[in-house]
């Protein structure tokens, strides 16, 4: 797989606390096993030239870091079940996502349909391998309230996986408010 992510270089302790709580439901903690920063995947492809992705990343040139507030846990109802943190809606993030896909254009087709602009749900994955037997426990985590926290995404990465390898990183400019 190849893709583009927004990543956070901060300690992100509230995120990692949620990861550790959710990963108890997995056989092996899937997010810790990545060895990669907290991130939002913007696009994903089974095959694509990294140079095309790198060119698409140009829409982030001179863009400020993106601060998002996360205030609830949600899930993708697959087998295995995936738990994730939902950010508050942020128009700037959605606009940049659309601009990225427009910049990638027809050379980047077909992307994973879950990451297409009309289908994409911004999410910060907590656990991606929760077995069906742990579904009731996972849904209990989803039903609990979450103390909202802010996380600033300060880099755009072109990555390949598995395992995660950063092929190119573009640092975003200083922090900008985004709520």
From TrEMBL:
Pfam families: 2_5_RNA_ligase2. The keyword Ligase applies. Gene3D superfamilies: Cyclic phosphodiesterase. Keywords: Ligase. InterPro entries: Cyclic_Pdiesterase. The keyword Ligase applies. One of its GO terms (molecular function) is ligase activity. This is 2'-5' RNA ligase family protein. It comes from Bosea eneae. The lineage of its organism: Bacteria, Pseudomonadati, Pseudomonadota, Alphaproteobacteria, Hyphomicrobiales.
């Amino acid at each position: 797989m190849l893709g583009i992510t927004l990543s956070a270089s901060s300690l992100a302790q509230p995120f990692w606390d949620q990861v550790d709580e959710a990963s108890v439901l997995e056989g092996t903690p899937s997010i810790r096993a990545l060895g990669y920063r907290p991130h939002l995947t913007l696009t994903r492809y089974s095959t694509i030239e990294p140079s095309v992705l790198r060119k698409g990343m140009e829409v982030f040139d001179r863009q400020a870091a993106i601060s998002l507030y996360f205030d609830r846990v949600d899930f993708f109802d697959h087998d295995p079940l995936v738990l994730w943190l939902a950010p508050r809606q942020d128009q700037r993030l959605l606009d940049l996502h659309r601009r990225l896909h427009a910049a990638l254009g027809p050379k980047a087709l077909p992307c994973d349909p879950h990451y297409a602009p009309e289908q994409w749900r911004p999410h910060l994955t907590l656990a991606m391998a929760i077995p069906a037997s742990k579904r009731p426990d996972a849904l209990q985590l989803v039903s609990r309230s979450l103390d909202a926290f802010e996380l600033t995404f300060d880099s755009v990465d072109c990555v390949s996986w598995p395992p995660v390898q950063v092929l190119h990183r573009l640092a975003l400019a200083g922090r900008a408010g985004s709520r």
